[in-house]
Amino acid sequence: MAVNTWDRWQMARYNAYRWRYELSITKKIGLALGMAGLVGLAAQARIPLPWTPVPLTLQTLAVLLAGILLGKWWGGISLAFYAGLGAAGVPWFNGWQGGIGVFAGPTGGYIIGFIFAALFLGYFVDKYIRARSFLSMFGLMFVANFFLIYIPGLIQLRLWYGLAPGENPGLYALLSMGLLPFIAVDMIKLFVAAAATRGITPKKAYGSEVDIDKAANWRIP
């Protein structure tokens, strides 16, 4: 019974990913909009920190999973919808905010980084079967989170402070507000997202993976 249950689960996740890979453009747009809404809901699970204008949220976990669930291009497109519709006034940025002014604020750069992170992860999960292992995905998510999200986030945070008279935070002060307080929680999020990827993604080709001939010989942890 256990073997049959496992086989059914393997087939179910394979069919789910093949289904979303083969969807029409219209349906992919619908899924991308739905994922953008989930990112917006995750943004409301927030803890304000007294020494920084950047809150602690669950948003990055949803962003990482957007690339995994929607794949090449469409994970990034879902976050582009999130950014674009939010700029147009949909109040789904953290704290139920909306409007173009959010991008000029302290968290605007992180939102731009979300798009890059989802594009990056979606590319790898659709292109390489080996990327769907826990260790591979944890490494990719580490790069996506701490480089593709935080670098534009810190740049915009510094520009925002530069507009205020007398505000000129140094590098350590900037990192203390925009990066260091979030590292421990982010590592937990990376672990959860990488483990989820290991569990839900199929370990055989459903599209145009380039490493299909090699994957049969791998033991994927």
Characterise the protein shown here:
With 221 residues, the protein is mostly helical. Helices cover 65% and strands 2% of the residues. The chain has a two-stranded antiparallel ribbon with strand order 1-2. Helix 2 (25-43) crosses helix 4, helix 4 runs antiparallel to helix 5 (108-127) and helix 6 (134-162) runs antiparallel to helix 8. The chain starts with a helix and ends in a 6-residue tail after the last helix.
Low-confidence stretches at least 5 residues in length (pLDDT < 50)?
Answer: none
Enter the CATH topology name: Arp2/3 complex 21 kDa subunit ARPC3
Query: What's the tally of helices?
Result: 9
Query: What sequence of helices (H) and strands (E) makes up the elements?
Result: HHEEHHHHHHH
**Could you tell me the strand content as a percent range?**
under 5%
Q: How big is the Rg? A: 19 Å
Query: Can you name the CATH architecture?
Result: Orthogonal Bundle
The main sheet comes to: 2 strands, antiparallel
Could you tell me the mean pLDDT?
Answer: 92
Short description:
The protein is mainly α and 221 residues long. 65% of the residues lie in helices and 2% in strands.
